[in-house]
UniProtKB/TrEMBL annotation, chain A:
Membrane topology: Lipid-anchor
CDD domains linked: Rab14 (cd04122)
NCBIfam families assigned: small_GTP
GO biological processes: defense response to bacterium; endocytic recycling; Golgi to endosome transport; phagosome maturation; protein transport
Main subcellular location of this protein, as a coarse class: cytoplasm
EC number: 3.6.5.2
Polar residues bias spans: 193-215
GO molecular function: G protein activity; GTP binding
Similarity annotation: Belongs to the small GTPase superfamily. Rab family.
Name of this protein: Ras-related protein Rab-14
GO annotations of cellular component type: cytosol; early endosome membrane; phagocytic vesicle; recycling endosome; trans-Golgi network
A matching Pfam family: Ras
Automatic annotation (TrEMBL), chain B:
PANTHER family named in the record: MITOCHONDRIAL FISSION 1 PROTEIN, TETRATRICOPEPTIDE REPEAT PROTEIN 11 TPR REPEAT PROTEIN 11
Keyword Transferase: no
InterPro entries, per the entry: Fis1 (IPR016543), Fis1_cytosol (IPR033745), Fis1_TPR_C (IPR028061), Fis1_TPR_N (IPR028058), TPR-like_helical_dom_sf (IPR011990)
Protein name in UniProt: Mitochondrial fission 1 protein
Sequence intervals crossing the membrane: 122-146
A UniProt-annotated Pfam family: Fis1_TPR_N
Length: 215, 151
C-alpha cells in the first residue's frame, strides 16, 4: 500500500477461475496477505486483489480478479476475462467433479482471452492427500496436452502458491521480451508504466485515465 | 484505479444484458436472474443515470426475492458508493456485516468506501447526527439475508 503507483513498471491483469469452493479466494488471500481463511464464504460476483512482485529486476503490479464460481454469477463474470494477461484455472484435488469441469473452463478462457494469455492450472488443497480424488499424473497430462503450466498447491499451507502467481508473471514477461505479446494491443492485459520519478502528478493523471479505459 | 468501485462494465456487455432484460420485460416475465445481471452491469457503468437505474432494480429485487439478498445488498453498497452516497453505502455494508461479520470481501469493500470518504474529506459524515439508517428504513422492508448459504 505504501508503495506509490510509480514503483512498478508494468501492470499485469490476472483472473482466477474454476468451480465454486475450489479455493480461489483462499489462494488470492494467501498470495496477497500470506494468511489462510479457514471458513471462507462464497464470493459475490468478483473480488479484487493486488500485489507488487519482481521479475528479472522489474517491478510488476498484479491486478487480480477473483471470480465467483457459483453458477448464478457465471454470465457476468465472463466480462472480466477480457484483457487478462494471466488466467489461473483452479480445481480441487479432493473433488473430481471440479477437475471434470476444467475443459469447459478452458474453452471459455480460450474464447474470451487472447492467444498470448498465459493459462496456469492449479490443483488446490494438496494438503488433503488422504482425500485425493485426482492423481497428479492425470492432471499433469491434461495440462501438457493443452499447453498449460501446472502445479498442485495448497492455499492452506501456502505450498506452491507464490510459485503459481510468479511463474505466470515470468511467462508473461517472457512473451513481452520475445515480442509475442503486443503491449499496444488494447486487450493484452499488460500496461507499461515507465517510471518517472519527480513527475508523479502528471503520470498519475495519465494513469488514471488509462486504467479506466482498460477495464 | 482498478478496483471494485472504479472498474467499468464493457459497453457491449451492458448492451447484452440490457437486451435480455428488455425482452423479458416485453413478455412481462422478468426473471430475478436477468434483472440481477442487468443491474450488476448497470451499477458498473460510468454514467450515473445507469447506476441509479441499477440501484432501483436491485432495490426491487431485494424486496421481492429473498434468497438473493446477500448479492443485492453487496451491489447496492457498490452502486451507492459509486454515486458518492456514502452513508447509504455504509448502511448496506454494515447490515451485511451484522449478519456475516467476518466476510473479508465485504470488510474490504467497507475499507475502500472509507478510503474514498477520507479522500473526499468526508470522514465522519456518514455518522453525522449519530444515526446510521437501517436498510429497512431505506428500502421499506424488514432485513434478513438468507444466511451464509454455503452450499
Ligand atoms: N484444506 C484446505 N482447504 C482449503 C484450501 N483452500 C481453500 N480451502 C477451503 O475451501 C473452502 C472454499 O474456499 P474458497 O477460497 O472460498 O473457494 P472459492 O473457489 O473462492 O469459492 P467461490 O467463491 O464460491 O467460487 C473454504 O472453506 C476454505 O477454507 C486448501 O488449500 N486446503
Ligand atoms: Mg471465492
Amino acid at each position: 500500500m505504501s508503495a506509490g503507483p510509480y514503483n512498478y513498471s508494468y501492470i499485469f491483469k490476472y483472473i482466477i477461475i474454476g468451480d465454486m469452493g475450489v479455493g480461489k479466494s483462499c489462494l488470492l488471500h494467501q498470495f496477497t496477505e500470506k494468511k489462510f481463511m479457514a471458513d471462507c464464504p462464497h464470493t459475490i460476483g468478483v473480488e479484487f486483489g493486488t500485489r507488487i512482485i519482481e521479475v528479472s529486476g522489474q517491478k510488476i503490479k498484479l491486478q487480480i480478479w477473483d471470480t465467483a464460481g457459483q453458477e448464478r454469477f457465471r454470465a457476468v463474470t465472463r466480462s472480466y476475462y477480457r484483457g487478462a494477461a494471466g488466467a489461473l484455472m483452479v480445481y480441487d484435488i479432493t473433488r473430481r467433479s471440479t477437475y471434470n469441469h476444467l475443459s469447459s473452463w478452458l474453452t471459455d478462457t480460450r474464447n474470451l482471452t487472447n492467444p498470448s494469455t498465459v493459462i496456469f492450472l492449479i490443483g488446490n488443497k494438496c494438503d488433503l492427500e488422504g482425500q485425493r480424488d485426482v492423481t497428479y499424473e492425470e492432471a499433469s497430462k491434461f495440462a501438457e496436452e493443452n499447453g498449460l503450466m501446472f502445479v498442485e498447491a495448497s492455499a492452506k499451507t501456502g505450498d506452491n502458491v507464490e510459485e503459481a502467481f510468479l511463474e505466470t508473471a515470468k511467462k508473461i514477461y517472457q512473451s513481452i521480451q520475445d515480442g509475442r505479446l503486443d503491449l499496444n494491443a488494447a486487450e493484452s492485459g499488460v500496461q507499461h508504466k515507465p517510471s518517472q520519478p519527480g513527475r508523479n502528478n502528471l503520470s498519475s493523471d495519465q494513469q488514471a485515465s488509462k486504467d479506466n479505459c482498460a477495464c | 484505479m482498478a478496483d471494485v468501485l472504479s472498474e467499468t462494465v464493457p459497453p457491449e456487455d451492458l448492451k447484452k444484458f440490457e437486451k435480455i432484460y428488455h425482452e423479458q420485460l416485453y413478455k412481462n416475465d422478468v426473471t430475478p436472474k436477468a434483472q440481477f445481471e442487468y443491474a450488476w452491469c448497470l451499477v458498473r457503468s460510468k454514467y450515473p443515470a445507469d447506476i441509479q437505474k441499477g440501484i432501483i432494480l436491485l432495490e426491487e429485487l431485494y424486496k421481492t426475492n429473498e434468497e438473493g439478498r446477500r448479492d443485492y445488498l453487496y451491489y447496492l453498497a457498490i452502486g451507492t458508493a459509486r454515486l458518492k452516497e456514502y452513508s447509504k453505502a455504509m448502511t448496506y455494508v454494515r447490515s451485511f456485516l451484522s449478519i456475516e461479520p467476518g466476510n473479508q470481501q465485504v470488510i474490504s469493500l467497507e475499507q475502500q468506501i472509507k478510503k474514498r470518504m477520507e479522500k473526499e474529506g468526508l470522514v465522519g459524515m456518514a455518522y453525522a447526527g449519530g444515526v446510521v439508517l437501517a436498510v429497512g428504513a431505506i428500502l421499506g422492508v424488514g432485513l434478513a439475508i438468507a444466511g451464509k448459504s454455503k452450499s
